[in-house]
């Protein structure tokens, strides 16, 4: 995963890869303090989806956490990529990767710095046999949100329980031969600022507390970037607004908070309303048209087709299915099939509840009350299945307004991204796929 060999480039030579590496490293040492947006704009591709000001905010936030570095060499690792290998005063190895934009070979597509794995830490792609170990790892690593800790149990096999229809990568960290960390990314199309982009969503990240302090977090973080960024237009992520890991790394200045996840107690919300007849494979085109008409207006929405819907419903194993979709002429609510057991520990004590995620949530404008009806009907069904909570992630102001009164708990999420979004994106809302959680 980490190249260590390649053609040596002269650090002050004419090769555009070397010039770009030298430019990035020079400004990194100066903490990006005297760099103008015009200079950044000239360095990157003409059609860069990331505004220069956003690039500067991100690199300026990152730079103070990078120690002084000594350059070793520049290496060309492909026709359009090169790396700079560096080390710090403690002997830790770092690298800067420059990815040029092939249509404009003198301009950057991406440049970023990562820390290489320390001795004893191996980063590698996950294999199917890692599923049980990854599930066990997730049970050992709670998510800390303020004073509350939530531990997730997805069952015996993480890779099966977290399956998504889009291209996805999971990488693992082994410490002295023991699986001790993981990072995952999902690649998907999305509309942002009236452009169709290929984005990489940084999804689940876990490090075993028993190896914290041994460089596993930095190694996995770097490997995640190395694995995802070269293959997308831009990355993004969601983190809990009170997540301690984010707070401790000073990244708040590049985030926005338009997303909430509503936890609806199924017993409290259950009514006698019946679920409508579920759609079938032949209804995929109608579902695609409805989703395009409703969630298609949200920022980060993806183009919908019958093939896209079929892959989503039929391509994730036991997670979803046609029988998990309630669809009427006015609203749609699709609900996860396999529950997750969540242990919550906080000031009020400890509880264990079984929850499912809403995968598809949509309503025609002015018909949001029909979605509320489907929510009540689904909660009745979930009670019969022994499910405690239904989680619905929303950003649309109209949907939030009608669904939030049903919630027993609302969790705010920060949306971290570098690509540009439309000026009215916060007002319209963002499409957040429930399958990504």
Distance between the termini: 26 Å
How much helix is in the residues?
25-40%
Indicate the low-confidence ranges by residue numbers: 247-253
Please compute the radius of gyration using only Cα atoms. 23 Å
CATH class of the largest domain: Alpha Beta
Question: How does this model look, in words?
Answer:
The protein is α+β, with helices and mostly antiparallel strands and 437 residues long. The radius of gyration is 23 Å and the shape is globular. About 2% of the residues have low confidence. Strands 6, 7, 8, 9, 10, 11, 12, 13, 14, 15, 16, 17, 18 and 19 form a 14-stranded mixed beta sheet that branches. Strands 1-2-3-4-5 form a five-stranded antiparallel beta sheet, with helices on both faces. Helix content is 26%, strand content 35%. A hairpin with a 2-residue loop joins strand 10 and strand 11. It folds into three domains: 109 residues, Nuclear Transport Factor 2, Chain: A; 133 residues, Gcn5-related N-acetyltransferase (GNAT) (Aminopeptidase), CATH 3.40.630.30; 178 residues, Gcn5-related N-acetyltransferase (GNAT) (Aminopeptidase, 3-Layer(aba) Sandwich). The protein contains 13 helices and 19 strands.
Sequence-ordered SSE layout with sheet pairings:
Blueprint: E1 7-9, H1 16-29, H2 37-43, H3 52-62, E2 69-78, E3 81-88, E4 93-101, E5 104-115, E6 121-125, H4 131-140, E7 143-145, E8 148-153, H5 158-161, E9 168-175, E10 178-192, E11 195-207, H6 216-228, E12 234-240, H7 244-247, E13 255-265, H8 266-269, H9 284-293, H10 306-314, E14 325-327, E15 331-335, E16 340-346, E17 349-363, H11 368-384, E18 389-394, H12 397-403, E19 409-417, H13 425-428
Helix pairs in contact: 2-3, 9-10, 11-12
